[in-house]
Amino acid sequence: MNHVLIIGAKSDIAQAIARVYAGNGYDLYLAARHADELTAFARDLHIRHRCDVRCIELDVLDYPSHLRFYEALPEKPVGVVCAVGYLGDQKQAQSDFAAAQRIIHTNFTGVVSLLDIIANDFEMRKQGFIVGIGSVAGERGRKKNYLYGSAKAGLTAYLSGLRNRLHDAGVTVLTVKPGYVRTNMTRGMALPALLTAGPEKVAQDIFQAQQKGQDILYTKRIWKWIMMIIRLIPEWKFKRLSI
C-alpha cells in the first residue's frame, strides 16, 4: 500500500491535491474534523481512480489525540500533505485573545504537534515525504493579517528545521508558499486575476515539486519575485504602506 495522508482534507486545495495523488496511483487517508462529510468525495475518488480512500476523524487542536490518531492508521503513510489553514478575523483577534489563539494554534501549534509525530516515524523508517502548506503571508507582517502571517512564518521556520533534521534520513520536506488562491477561504475578496491561482494549479505544482524532491515552492511562480521585492522594502518605508 502507498497511502498519502492529507491533513485538513476538507479544504479546496486539499481536495485538489487528493485528486492529483489519486490520479497518480496513490491511496489516501483523508483526515479532518467531521470526516464523515468527506464520504461522498472519497467514494468519487475510489470510483474514478480505483484507489483505497479512507476518511479519518482528526481535530488539529486536540493535541493529546494526535499520537493515537497516527498509531491507529492501518498502514503508515509514505507521505503527508498538511493543508491546514485558518485565516480567521484579524480585527476580532486584536481584541479577543481566544480568536488570536485559534488562528495561531490552528496554523502552527497543532500542525507542529502532528508533524513531529510523523517526522519521528519517517526518520526511524528512513523514508517518506512531508509537504507543509504555508503562505506568502508569512514572509512579512502586514497589518491586515499579521496574526495569520506570523503563524505561517513560524510554520516556514519549523519546516526549514525539519528539512535540515531529516535530510540525512532520506526524508524530504517541501514548504509550499501559495499566493492568492480561489478557495472558500478567500471567497468575497477582490483578488487580482494575474496573481491568483485555482486549487487545481496549486495541486499540480505541489505534486510535481514533491516528486522532484524540491525544498520550497511558490505558486504561482511569480510570487517568488513579488515577495523578494517586498522583503527588500526598508522597514521605515514598509510601515507606512498599506499592501
N to C succession of SSEs: EHEHEHEHHEHEEEHEHH
Helix count, DSSP H or I runs of 4 or more residues: 9
Q: Estimate the strand proportion.
A: 15-25%
Secondary structure: helix percent = 40-55%
Low-confidence stretches: none
What is the CA-atom radius of gyration, in angstroms?
18 Å
Rough outline: globular
Q: Which structural class should the secondary elements be placed in?
A: alpha/beta
Describe the structure.
The chain is α/β, with parallel strands linked by helices and 243 residues long. The protein has 9 helices and 9 strands. α1 packs across α7 and α5 packs parallel to α6. The longest helix is centred in the middle third of the chain and has 29 residues. 42% of the residues are buried.
Characteristics of this structure?
243 residues, alpha/beta, 9 helices
Tell me briefly what this model is.
This protein has helices spanning 12-23, 39-49, 65-71, 90-95, 97-125, 146-166, 199-211, 222-232, 235-238; strands at residues 3-7, 27-32, 53-57, 79-82, 129-133, 172-178, 180-181, 196-197, 216-219. It has 243 residues and is an alpha/beta fold.
Task: Detail the topology: elements first, then pairings.
Elements lengths: L2 E5 L4 H12 L3 E6 L6 H11 L3 E5 L7 H7 L7 E4 L7 H6 L1 H29 L3 E5 L12 H21 L5 E7 L1 E2 L14 E2 L1 H13 L4 E4 L2 H11 L2 H4 L5
Parallel strand pairs: 1-2, 1-4, 2-3, 4-5, 5-6, 6-9, 7-8
